Every structure is written in structure tokens, then in C-alpha cells.
Amino acid sequence: MSRPRSITGRPVVITGAASGIGRALATRLSRLGSPVALADVDADGLKATAAALHGRVLTRVLDVRDADDQLAFAGEVREWLPAPLAAVFNNAGVAVTSSVLDAVPEDDDWLHDINFRGVVHATRAFLPILAEQGEGAIVNTSSVYGLLGVPYQSAYCAAKFAVRGFTESLRQELAGSAVRAITVHPGGITTNIARNARVRRDPTGQGRSRDEMAAQFEAMTMTSPDKAAAIIHTGVDRGKARILVGPDAYLFDALARVTPTHYNAVLTRLMRRPRRTEAVR
Prior knowledge:
Layout: E1 12-15, H1 20-31, E2 36-40, H2 43-51, E3 57-61, H3 67-80, E4 87-90, E5 96-97, H4 105-133, E6 136-141, H5 154-173, E7 179-186, E8 198-199, H6 210-219, H7 225-237, E9 242-245, H8 247-258, H9 263-271
Parallel strand pairs: 1-2, 1-4, 2-3, 4-6, 5-8, 6-7, 7-9
Helix pairs in contact: 1-7, 3-4, 4-5
């Protein structure tokens, strides 16, 4: 099968564009000539991202949980497009840290509405545009936590596994067409997701404060958003259906295959080693 057209220099949509991987993707692709349509619920962060770009930009303050607003955004993008849409990057995401025993349903619902249903809403909003064109890519951000279950991340893992399953199902439906469905599995990316997470208490019982937990999480990261954006961009251009981001993503993938029920013991031993490891996007 031939490699798909490069997305470089062609229009793209990016959600979660106010910071982290979303901002890095916007910066990279805009610099390479792509018109970018950017969305995020963080109006100030979105404005800052757009201000740093020099090419054609459309911005939209958007809560990805709102299916109707996603459809409206897709309509705005359709009118704005200077050329066929190359890719839609569904990247918005949040985190919750809790044991299953102490989980607060409202927190889990908040995360699922953003991390999973937001992806579904955006896919359904933009897929008709790509189908009419006869080409393009839906690029949905899962996680390494969409490959393995991790303690105290049940809501996050559930949503990211769901993104993976949804996107893989879509991929099979699109087989034989030039419209692609791609999953992205970032490992540890240095973003503000830990600082913005909902944490009611330290689920390990160590009594760590929210800031202490976030600092420990961030201390384990080794992949920058810029590097992640480069890996994702290259993976899409190379026609990959699944993109692993960072060394730990390859480790998680291997453990899921080799020891699908005992991987946590291996991860725990590795995390105790005195080295800089990766946290999760």
C-alpha cells in the first residue's frame, strides 16, 4: 500500500491546543506552512498559542464535551478551509488520581466526558468532511495508559482504552478508503496535566499534597511536547495506524504483549531505579 499524502503544509484541526502536545503540534505544523484551526476551553492559553504562530489560524474556545458545539466548530472549519482538510488531532485531555474504592463519580464523569466522549464528538463532527473529500486522517490521542492498567488511574485508563477501541473500530470501517483513523499513545510528556488533575487525597496513603504529587509526576517525565509533536507528525506522514511516543511507550507496549497480567510488578521495580523515567501525557 502506498504512503498517504503528507500533511505538511496542509490544513489541520487541533483540540487541546492551549498547551502541551496540542500547542507543540500547532507550532510545528504552522511553522511548516499548515493553516491551523485550534480549539481549547482555555481561552487565554489558546490566545497565547495563536499569538506565537505566523501562518493562517482559526481559533475557537470550545468545550469538547459539547457535541452540538463540536458540530458548530466543524461547520466553521468547513467554511474557513483554504484547501482540503489533512488531519484532525483530537488531543484535549485531563486527569483524575484516585483509588477505585474512593473514586468520586462526578470526577470520573468529568474525565470520561472530555477524554473519551470529546474524542467521539469530534470524530463524528469532522469525519463527514474527510469522507466527502475522500481522504484525510482522524488522529485520536490515547495513552500508554490505554495499553496497560495502572493503579490509581482507573478513570484515565478506562477512557484511554475506550479511545483506543473506538479508533481501532473506526479504522476497520474505513478500510479500503483514503480516510485514516490513527491512535497516538504518548508516554511521559512534560505537560501541565498533573497540575490540572482532580485529586481529592493521596490514594497511596503517604499523605502527599497535591503539589507534591504533581512534582513527583513531573520529575519522571523525559519527553518534551516538541519532541512528541515531531514523533506524531512523522508517524502520520509515514502512514502509521498507531503511534508510540517516547521510550516508555515502547516498554508499555512490550509488557502488554509479554506479561499481560503481571506487568505492574515489572513497572514498579523499574520506577524504583535511580533514573529519570517518564510520566504520562
